[in-house]
């Protein structure tokens, strides 16, 4: 099995020197074990947080151990009746082409719907889709008629969030992303009413004001910093934010300036709620039913950027942090 391990804790942007590739000879299966040939592994922004040794909601990666994280693959050898050869499974054994572990670590999945590939279970019908669903509906308490702003709108969470907001009756959905191509996709493909490039002038604050002259009810924050500040500026009274991520600062070596207008939280009676999807897996069944149905009916699209080869996992991760993905970034290992 080819596996990627973290060997240094990066300061600022990770480099390939912070990782190493190893080859592991797998033993014969022990009773209770299965062997899974991965089809796709997930690279995710939260992994950057786990590369440093700090207190967080999940423990840091252990140096010299194989990178864990979401993956989907097929059982190729099995000792248990529940997971026969050929079963599609998801698991958290991460950056390796073959995973061999106790059956309890794998969850059986139905084959991907329609002509989607199994990677959809890492994206729109997986963790990032659930994050969008929970963040909008449970955390930000989206109401029909709301005006919604979503940052990081062309990424995995953002593409799902824009489409879910629209289907749940938002009146106006505004997105920001980092290129002209992505901005065009937001309105042409992901159901956004208006979109802007946060790298363009004028400021995010001004571009959001222009896109939402009457203000916003809901902000889904994937970025933090200047985007959160812009949202605080544009909120209507009683506005609600789901604080999902702050990718603008994940590789920063200096303190990123926080919003200078936090007092608006008081004067406008705003509710800003942070969340991590791991505390909301109880909503997975409802999410699977509702978003799965939308996908089957063609009301929701799933897009992804696919990087081939386990050896390119680090490049895929760094590309994700640089914005080289549209929709979910995945590594194809098969
Ligand atoms: P994405 O697919 O959105 O990929 C990351 C994107 O971030 C890039 O494509 C890039 O797009 C954008 N980006 C990078 N740097 C910046 C910057 N300085 N300012 C603005 N945008 C930037 O990743 P995910 O959908 O997986 O995750 C999105 C966010 O959601 C992240 O913050 C992540 O940590 C968070 N998250 C939180 C979860 C939770 O449980 N709370 C669960 C899953 C994700 P662009 O070209 O537009 O710059």
Automatic annotation (TrEMBL):
For this protein, the record's CDD domains field holds: PGDH
The terms under GO molecular function for this entry are: oxidoreductase activity, acting on the CH-CH group of donors, NAD or NADP as acceptor
Q: What is this protein called?
A: NADP-dependent oxidoreductase YfmJ
Enzyme Commission number(s) of this protein? 1.-.-.-
Pfam families (alphabetical): ADH_N_2, ADH_zinc_N
PANTHER family in UniProt: PROSTAGLANDIN REDUCTASE, PROSTAGLANDIN REDUCTASE 1
Q: Where is the Enoyl reductase (ER) domain?
A: 15-331
Question: What is the species listed in this Swiss-Prot or TrEMBL entry?
Answer: Gordonia insulae
Under InterPro entries, the record lists: ADH-like_C, ADH_N_2, ER, GroES-like_sf, MDR_fam, NAD(P)-bd_dom_sf
Specify the taxonomic lineage: Bacteria, Bacillati, Actinomycetota, Actinomycetes, Mycobacteriales
Q: Where are the transmembrane segments?
A: none
Extract the Gene3D superfamilies matched here. Answer: Medium-chain alcohol dehydrogenases, catalytic domain (3.90.180.10), NAD(P)-binding Rossmann-like Domain (3.40.50.720)
Kindly state which keywords UniProt assigns to this record, in alphabetical order.
Oxidoreductase
